[in-house]
Design a protein that fits this description.
The complex is a heterodimer of chains A (302) and B (318).
Chain A lengths: L1 E5 L1 H5 L3 H13 L3 E4 L10 H5 L1 H18 L3 E3 L2 H15 L2 H11 L12 E3 H16 L3 E2 L4 E4 L23 H8 L3 E2 L18 H17 L4 E4 L2 H9 L1 H8 L10 E3 H8 L17 H10 L1 E2 L3
Parallel strand pairs in A: 1-2, 1-3, 3-4, 6-7, 6-8, 8-9
Antiparallel strand pairs in A: 5-10
Chain B lengths: L1 E7 L12 E7 L6 H12 L18 E4 L2 E4 L5 H4 L6 E4 L6 E3 L2 E2 L2 H9 L19 H4 L3 H4 L6 H4 L2 H5 L5 H12 L7 H8 L13 H5 L6 H14 L6 H16 L4 H9 L4 H16 L14 H15 L1
Parallel strand pairs in B: 1-5
Antiparallel strand pairs in B: 1-2, 3-4, 3-5, 6-7
The chains are: A alpha/beta (302), B alpha+beta (318).
């Protein structure tokens, strides 16, 4: 199993702990990967609103590079995954459009034939590795903590571009991994809604209301932590949580809910040291959560 | 087959069930829709159940409601589409609107927002003798958006409206696009000026709920993205949204990747001193944690090729 790994801008910038924890988990699972240094930004849905064809061309260029290497693309960001999947969906249903785009990237000696598979790490672990196999790598039973999921819009919608017609189980894969770690699964209404990040710099008031609603609801539902496969959701739910909850919660108190990246949760269950997963880099303190894990987590019974 | 439907009741005259889910189980043919099931409940089991419906053929847009948590037309949704192995189907009224009774919502907010965009043609120039003529080619791109049946599904599940009732929301914005992009309309510039204001096109979170739940494939969010582009093209660029999009495009064109730090600075506005100061604490905190992205931005080895792609595709558009 080998992948063309596209970490995206955020794992290389504002959430370096996502990069570290992804590498740690991949190594444990013996999944080979080659980091794509010549991929460009996917456009994150923003470039798409300025010039859709331009954004599609950049993505097709990335697909063509991976195709040349004969490798499927691995993403670790709901937004990268969704935006790439949408671009792929558009060009594959319109051969004339793909031909036009291929005309642009031909200058670079590239041509996309349409064979590249694009998968988020979450789907690689649930669909390629499989939850049962994944559980064999778990050494720490996390039954001492309660974890709520937060998916990120672009891993959920639009379902036709994201392959939900063939794989309807994708709508609950994160729930399943949380349960597989032994953690108590906390369901809440906001898990599939918007985190507010896309409008953080545009309408911060609305963005922070979303952060407060979701982190507050998960905390009120009994969560000790929230896990997300999207670093953009993480940026908002972690970085702006204190400000958002103090401003918008009825009691004006912080909720202090650690927001952990998907591979950090998997890594914890694998028994990897929290420092090696970058937990010290979070804005909302993860100390209490990790103290509970250290003192109360039991070894997985075999 | 056996169907189980859990209906959220809302009727203060019936306190025993008000605000609660009530479960009904009965036998139905395999092709039964959620609406058929609800009508069966109303006619054969509990005559107090309130449901709004008319055409039963996804044309009138009356039976919008949430089925298993997502807005849908009850008449277009088969029980078997939403229930595996006879699992209960949950039915609730639409969101973001007050409930009148059971599954019937008050759509005043929906209509107010649609009216706000002046949803009628406003031609300019001398009046023609006959109709205002438009070529087929100039109108085909509007066919999708004209399919809107005003059912309210997109408004029900809009995540931006959920936190801000001032947001004009997807249905009205799709309708606005229908007129802005109509070759016969002469008020596009004025329309865009209004849509560029607070509560307009830039407050959409791009969450894709409206695209997902629309029963007629209107894809409201895609229209909102087009309106943003048209507003920028019309010169309405002094907004955080426009600055955000243009800053994003500039950094990718320059280095192949996003410059996150400059995006925050430029979206806020270089001369917006209070705005910049408000961002400082998170910047400092990120720096201390060793996670402030390099303000000079990331650059990929192939950045010249990316710039070339930008130049070629941007030139095509012009």
């Amino acid at each position: 199993m080998k992948y063309a790994w596209w970490p995206g801008c955020v794992a290389r910038g504002a959430t370096p702990e996502l990069y570290t924890s992804t590498v740690a988990v991949l190594k444990r699972l013996n999944i080979e990967f080659e980091e794509m240094h010549d991929f460009s930004c996917t456009g994150a849905g923003v470039l798409q609103e300025r010039n859709l064809k331009l954004a599609d061309t950049l993505n097709v260029r990335n697909f063509a590079i991976a195709e040349k290497l004969g490798l499927p693309i691995m993403t670790v960001c709901s937004t990268c995954q969704g935006v790439m999947a949408q671009a792929h969906y558009r060009v594959m249903k319109d051969p004339a459009y793909l031909k036009e785009i291929n005309g642009v990237i031909a200058e670079e000696g590239l041509e996309y034939k349409g064979t590249t598979v694009i998968k988020h790490l979450l789907w690689i672990l649930t669909e390629e590795v499989g939850v049962d196999e994944l559980k064999k790598h778990f050494t720490r039973n996390l039954s001492c903590i309660s974890v709520a999921p937060f998916y990120g819009c672009y891993l959920l919608r639009p379902t036709n571009a994201l392959g939900y017609d063939e794989k309807p189980e994708r709508e609950a894969e994160l729930d399943r991994v949380i349960e597989a770690t032994g953690a108590r699964f906390i369901d809440f209404a906001g898990k599939k809604k918007c985190c507010g990040f896309p409008i953080l710099l545009i309408n911060q008031q609305n963005s922070l209301k979303m952060v407060a609603n979701h982190t507050g609801a998960a905390k009120d539902g009994g969560a000790d932590a929230m896990v997300t496969p999207c670093p953009l959701c993480h940026l908002n739910l972690d970085g702006y949580q204190d400000k958002a909850t103090k401003r918008n919660r009825p009691d004006h108190q912080k909720v202090s809910l650690p927001i952990i990246h998907f591979p950090q949760l998997v890594g914890l269950a694998m028994g990897i040291e929290p420092e090696d997963l970058g937990f010290q880099k979070h804005m909302v303190s993860t100390k209490d959560l990790l103290a509970t894990v250290r003192s109360k987590a039991t070894p997985v019974a075999r | 087959m056996q169907a189980t439907v859990r209906v959220k009741r809302h009727n203060q005259e019936l306190p025993a069930t008000h605000g609660k889910f009530q479960e009904f189980s009965f036998d139905v043919p395999a092709n039964t829709t959620v609406l058929d099931a609800l009508i069966k409940i109303r006619e054969e089991i509990d005559g107090t159940l309130a449901v709004r419906c008319s055409c039963r053929a996804s044309i009138c847009g009356s039976c919008g409601m949430r089925v298993n948590g997502q807005a849908r037309l009850a008449c277009k949704t088969k029980i078997t589409d939403v229930s595996k192995d006879g699992a209960p189907v949950t039915v609730e009224p639409m969101g973001n609107m007050p409930v009148i009774k059971d599954l019937v919502t008050d759509m005043t907010l929906f209509w107010d927002k649609v009216r706000q965009v002046e949803p009628y043609l406003q031609p300019s120039g001398p009046e023609p003798k006959g109709e205002y003529i438009a070529s087929d080619e100039s109108m085909t791109h509007l066919v999708g958006v004209m399919n809107c049946i005003m059912c309210g599904a997109c408004v029900s599940d809009c995540t931006a409206l959920e936190v801000d009732k001032n947001f004009i929301a997807p249905a009205a914005l799709a309708k606005a696009y229908r007129f802005v992009a109509d070759p016969r309309d002469g008020a596009a510039k004025q329309r865009l000026a209004k849509l560029n204001e607070y509560g307009g096109v830039w407050d959409c979170t791009r969450c894709y709920y409206c695209v997902e739940v629309c029963p007629k494939d209107v894809a409201p969010m895609d229209r909102i993205m087009k309106l943003r582009d048209l507003a920028m093209e019309a010169g309405y660029n002094n907004t955080p949204g426009s600055r955000h999009t243009r800053s994003f495009a500039r950094s990718v064109k320059k280095g192949g990747l996003l410059n996150e730090t400059m995006l925050a600075v430029e979206s806020t506005g270089l001369f917006n001193i209070p705005g910049q100061l408000a961002q400082a604490p998170i910047g400092i905190k990120s720096f201390i944690k060793g996670k402030l992205p390099n303000p000079l931005g990331h650059k990929i080895p192939a950045r010249k090729r990316i710039k070339r792609v930008f130049e070629k595709v941007e030139a095509e558009r012009k």
